Amino acid sequence: MPAAIETDSLTKSYGDTDALAGLSLSIPRGVVYGFLGPNGAGKTTTMRILTTLTTPTSGDAWVMGDHVSDRDAVVDHIGYMPETPPVYDELTAREQLTYLADLRDLDADQRERIDPLLDRFDLAGAADDPIRTYSKGMRQKAALAGTVLQDPDVIFLDEPTSGLDPRAARTVRDLIAEQADEGRTVFLSTHILPVVEELADTVGMLADGSLVAEGSPAALKRRAEAATAGNGTDDAVERTLEDVFLSVTDERAWDGEPADAEG
Question: What is the DSSP letter of 262?
C-alpha cells in the first residue's frame, strides 16, 4: 500500500533561489503530519506542489500513489484549505457547499453529506444566512466543511486556526482530530505550535527549503533534551516543541544534518 504522501528530492527554484532543495517525505495514511517552518521556508510551495497548483523544478511527488503530474487523479484524493479560504460572501453556507459539489461533479451520495456537515460544523442554524454575516470562526468552519465535502483521503490545511477565538479554535482542532481518527491523512501547516503538539503524530521542520528535523513531538523534545545534556550540563533541560523549532531552524539541526527522531 503506497504512502499517503511521498516526495523524492523535490526541488522548486525561482531564478537563482531554491524555495525547495531536495525535499524527501514519506507520510503514512491516517496520521496528522505537522509541517513547521519559518516564513519563506518552503511550506506553501510544498503544499502547492502536492495539490497540483504548481509544478516542481525537479524531483517527484505522489499522493495516494498517484504522481502529481496526473492532476485529475490527485485532485480526486485531496481537499485543500489555504490560509485565506475561498468562500463567497454573497452565498450561504449551504449554497457554497452545493456550488462546490457542482464544481467537483460529486455524486448523489456525496451530496448527501452537505446537511450532516453543516450540523457537525455547528452551522446548521446559519446555513441559509449569507457568509458575509459570519464571524471568522464560522467562515473557517464553512471552508473546512467544503474541504472535506468530497470525503478526501488526504486533507491539506494551511493555518486553519489562525485568528480564531479559543472556542472556535477548539472546534476546528476537534474536527481535524476526527479526520485522522476516520482514517484520513491531514497535512497541517501552522505557526501555532501548541496545535501541532496536541494533534500531530509526526512533525517535519523545514528551513531554507530542506527538512531539518522529523519525528513525533515527544521524540523531538527528547532529542533536544539529550543534546542539552550532552553540551556539558549535569541534567537534560526539559524542552518544548518551540525550543526544538527555534533550535533546528536557527542551527539547521543539532549536528548539522537533518535530525530524524524515532518514536
Answer: -
Query: How many other CB atoms sit within 10 Å of the CB of residue 257?
Result: 9
Beta strands 32-36; 202-207: pairing state: parallel
Instruction: Give the Cα-Cα-Cα angle 151, 154, 160 (nearest 5 degrees).
Output: 90
User: Among candidates 87, 18, 71, which has minimal Cα distance to 46?
Assistant: 18
Tens digit of pLDDT for each residue in 111-125?
999 999 999 888 999
Task: Return phi, psi of residue 211, to 5°.
Answer: -80, 120
What are 221-258's pLDDT values in tens digits? 887 777 666 555 545 556 788 888 888 777 543 343 44
- Residue 130 to residue 4: CA distance in whole angstroms: 36
Could you tell me the domains of the chain?
Answer: 5-209 (3.40.50.300)
Amino acid 232: pLDDT: 55
